Amino acid sequence: MGGDHRYYCDFNSETKLGNWEIVQQEKDNVVLTTVVSCLVGDFVFLAPCPAAPYPQPHHRTMPRLKNLIVNGESLPALKSNAMYNHEEFSRFGINITLKDGENRLVAEMILPENGVVDLEKIGFSIVPAEKPVAKPVFKQKKHSFTATEYQRDSSSPDVAGWHLGAGRKTSPGRFGFSKGDGLLDCAMPALGIVDKMYLCGQPKYQKLYHWSYSLLPEGMGLHGSFEPCDTGIEEDEITINHLSVRWAAKHEGKTFSCTYSLASPAILTESESKSMRVSGLQFAGNYQSILIPRADGIEEVSLDDADIAGMAENWVLLYDSTEFPDVPLMLVFDRNPENMKVIRNKSGRLESIEFSGTPLMLSCTPFGIGRFEPGKMPLEDAVRRCRFWSRALLAYPVKCCDYFQLDDAAQKVTVRQKFEYRYIQDVWGTEPLELAPFPPPSTLSETAELESVTDFGFPTKYGYLNGRIGSWSEYSLPYMPLTRKFPLRDVDSKLPEKLREGFEPYKNLVSFFGKNRVSYPYAGALLEPFSMVSSMLFFMDGEEKKFLLEKLDERMKIVLDKDVTSDYTVIDWSVMMRNKPDHAGVIEQYEDPAKKHIYLKNWYDRKEPFTGVQFKICYLNLYFFSDNVIKEGTQEEIFNLKVPLIENDWGAGLTFYYIYLGALATGSFAEVKKHWDLVKEVYSFFDLMHDWACMGTGYSDNGITWVEGANYGLFPTYIRMAEAAGDEESRAFGIYNAAKQLALRLAIMKASQKYFPEYFEVEPWYNTKHFHEESNPNLAFQNVPVLTDQRVRPDSIYNFTTEGIYPETYLAMRRFGGKKYPEMLSRLMESTRSGAIQKSEKNLAWWAIQQYTAMLIDKALDVNCPEEEFYEALEYGLQHECMIREWRGIHIYSRALPENYFLCQLLAWMEMRKHKLWLEHWEEMRIESARWMDDHAEIEFKYSGSGAMKLQCGVTEQPSKILLNGKEILWQTLRAGLIEITAAEEGTMTILFS
Fold first, then answer.
1. Are 768 and 759 in contact (CB under 8 A)?
2. pLDDT per residue over 380-438, tens digit each?
3. Cα→Cα distances 68→43, 74, 88, 219, 885, Å
């Protein structure tokens, strides 16, 4: 999911420091030294802080700075936060002063994993310290603004008979496995550190560091799991649910804590020391002014001259930075601080503000992701926001529970969310104001129906923060479409012959590896070579069909068996991606005797450390093997790994989809029913890790990205499998959860075409790849990326499905994407053909090939796309080798395809346009053939299960008659364009149209 970051600062302006010598090396440490001359004055020494726990390969060979000694003065690096950017890693910034003449620098470092120090790749540099600024000019003004009245609503929602949704039980959401965390408009990479990394991703922000401030007491070390952290969290008190966290630690024997919530803009800070400190402000804003509410109006005064005594309301606002960006900072207190001490460094820049006599403070930036040019903050609007939040923050939301109802006829799910609050009393008697916000992506999806909407005026990283004033709110979402269209074989179709042409090489390769070997470390790899191809089963005859069904029958019996162990050859996946080996080359890689073999389980248990909840996963990311994080792959090792594992949703999404296709092809959901408890346990990851703010589940244990495209396949197939298993409760929850997932995906797609451009002050672009938290402080994922001349992000739709290539996704996007979706595809097609996305004429990146294939799928399934337009695009893809043929993505053996599989699938969908019927879903019946006979459908099938046989068909018009073995039977219309037929016996079904 990487590659979605960009900086606008000039890294080339730095002075690189070379000529380092090793003066000492022992065990895990190395000491380097160099001399710097010809530079005099104040500088910032920049040292790489390689990422963890997901290091790039070259990070493992980099030493890490512990301590810098400048002319005899020791300056510890690991005691500071890594604030400075680089294109590959975050960096420590250490303020140093260089004298005239020679300056001796000594770097005490931790040796890299390989014990080798490459002096050419140390990566140290220096930049001039920021220029001094003048003392703020004294000003003092009074303003009178009419206060807006907000009425509390104390009503309770009626949820009798509703299903329970997210929040109904202990669940960590995005807050599991590690600390810090991402919030609505910032991140907390360590306890008390507030970070707006995304600001680095907009063109006007050109600083080397990212926007941040600290709430920590003076002298308190860093607690957290993001680099760097010199103090662990083992002794900390951490209480979490899917909406909020309370994180407390001891400092000098006294408790300091931060409480944060996804339903609130503010961080709630408390300290037994009865004092508050906001520091590191040189990285936030060199604030010059403060607003203080007085009895006779709002006082606007220069910060250094302000008197905090005599506040008439519970808030103050810091603003008026000397340079872009000006991000106003609001502070709310439960009592009037006794004193406010403003501290500036020797350059005159604001460093910290200390407040005595107050044990509690809330801090937030009331304009959300908005920011201003210096002096451009709208004063009256700022006061209105502060007065609103000064009440709303006192009803601090700490828990939320969803209740939902399904409307199958309208294909709509309605969600009622009930919030719980921690109420804070202040000495001014301010009345708390409960807010019940909608998940922000719902405001961007353009499909959500939001009830009783109030705009809270707070733009988040994921959408507007709108909601209802009160403790509950309600919204409705459309169902995620379940439609997968399986075309009938036209009576005159030439596709079986075309499909047969490239079948033998595929068959030989996938047959080379037995059922106890996997090409990739996940359960779905057992089915992957066969399930996708099975979508063209109706177009196969003889040996091809027999081969595929035998393999699927075999693999369906083992893929859901939790006791199965498979042999995985630890391949160098980067070599496979780069070299793109042919069939023989793939076999050579997997048969290399020097390669390591690990024996992997299909399904692994995981336990989230803060809540203790457990779930199952089926994928172990390749990074963890290449970086030696996973050594043996035993159940015990995986269960006890402390680092967050990534792309769990990728593995589950693909695996569920392959299981579903396998069940259709074999005609039996018997294995699904037999192992239904296991299926539900795997799916529980998408419940336990469900994120309120993003309406989906993170692709990692600790929820840092929404979404990994391959997970889409899980949502419709889980619903279908729940139906087959007769589990109505699971079906209902699956529909509710999938509806949220669809809204999230629509919001991600549309965010860059209106929402982000408004706040980044740029033209729209096409499109956002995903919502991502600052999982590592050097990556800014909410940003304006590198674009083509069509303002297209080159891999715009690759992550719609990643390796899944799910037709369901494109049908849903076409249906709900509005005008933004076809415009994006049009621009993407133009960029592809202009060469903007090509590496070279005949060497496209594999993601670009997949992306072009996705556009062809969309055109084939769009009945409004003219046939000549589709065939012209298809011909272009064939001529320029930019559509999927023998390989889908990385050249591992499970990704091999019959050479003409995708070509035939596309052409089958085009033939389907002439048919009045296609298949969508069936249970307990093995379809032997499905043909369109000029004016009617003919389907031969056998009984293959233990329950009732049923068949769902999409139709362009209602049948006039349906015959089973020559006898007329009835059918049911589920909704417009979809019928269901039940069969009491096997045989031949004839579906006639007038």
1. no
2. 999 999 999 999 999 999 999 999 999 999 999 999 999 999 999 999 999 999 999 99
3. 14, 6, 22, 19, 55
Tell whether the model's pLDDT for residue 842 goes beyond 60: no
Distances in whole angstroms, Cα of residue 155 to Cα of each of 163, 195, 418, 471: 20, 37, 11, 8
Rounded Cα distance between 372 and 141, Å, is 21
Contacts for 459 with CB less than 8 Å, ≥ 6 apart: 185, 367, 368, 369, 370, 465, 755, 759
Average pLDDT over residues 540-556: 96
Q: pLDDT digits over 744-756, tens only? A: 999 999 999 999 9
Which sign, positive or negative, has the C-alpha torsion 158, 161, 167, 170?
Answer: positive
| pLDDT band (50, 70, 90) for residue 1 | very low
Q: 249 φ, ψ to 5°?
A: -145, 160
Cis peptide before 180, with omega less than 30 degrees from 0?
yes
Sign of CA dihedral 427, 430, 434, 437: negative
Average pLDDT of every residue of the chain = 93
**Strand partners for 987:** 941
- Does the pLDDT at position 329 exceed 90? yes
pLDDT digits (tens, 9 = 90+) for 664-692: 999 999 999 999 999 999 999 999 999 99
Give the span between the Cα atoms of 777 and 228, in whole angstroms: 10
Omega cis (within 30) before 478: no
- Per-residue model confidence (pLDDT) at position 55: 46
Instruction: Quickly count: other Cβ atoms within 10 Å of residue 232's Cβ.
Output: 10
List, in sequence order, every residue forming a beta bridge with 347; answer none if it has no partner.
none
Q: Are strands 267-271 and 254-261 parallel, antiparallel or unpaired?
A: antiparallel
Residues 314/333, Cβ–Cβ less than 8 Å: yes
- H or E element in which residue 43 lies: strand 41-49
Question: Can you say whether the dihedral through the CA atoms of 554, 560, 561, 566 is positive or negative?
Answer: positive
SS3 714: helix
Residue, of 846 and 958, whose pLDDT is higher: 958
Q: Is the pLDDT of residue 471 over 90?
A: yes
Q: What whole-number distance in Å separates Cα of residue 176 and Cα of residue 653? A: 21
Structure confidence at residue 56 (pLDDT): 52
The DSSP secondary-structure symbol of 960 reads S
Distance CA 489, CA 607 (A): 48
Name residue, tokens 């690189």.
Answer: 16
Helix (H) or strand (E) holding 110: strand 103-110
Angle 161-163-164 from CA coordinates, rounded to 5°: 125
Backbone angles phi, psi at 67, to 5 degrees: -150, 140
Give the pLDDT of residue 69.
96
Kindly list the distances between the CA atom of residue 264 and the CA atoms of 245, 371, 393, 624, 781, in Å, as whole numbers in the listed order.
12, 19, 7, 35, 21
What six digits make up the tokens of 810?
Answer: 């494109």
Residue 843 pLDDT grade (very low, low, confident, very high; cuts 50, 70, 90): low
- How far is Cα 755 from Cα 440, in angstroms, rounded to an integer? 12
- Residue 153 confidence (pLDDT) above 90: no
Cβ burial 309-327 (10 Å sphere, 16+ → b, else e): eebebbbbbbbbbbebbbb
* Alpha-carbon span 203 to 714, nearest angstrom: 37
| E runs forming strands in 506-622 | 517-518, 565-569, 597-601, 604-607, 614-617
Q: pLDDT tens across 777-798, in order?
A: 667 678 898 899 999 998 889 9
SS3 of 376-445: the string is CCCHHHHHHHHHHHHHHCCEEEEEEEEEEEEECCCCEEEEEEEEEEEECCCCCCCCCCCEEECCHHHHCC
Dihedrals phi, psi of 258, to nearest 5 degrees: -125, 135
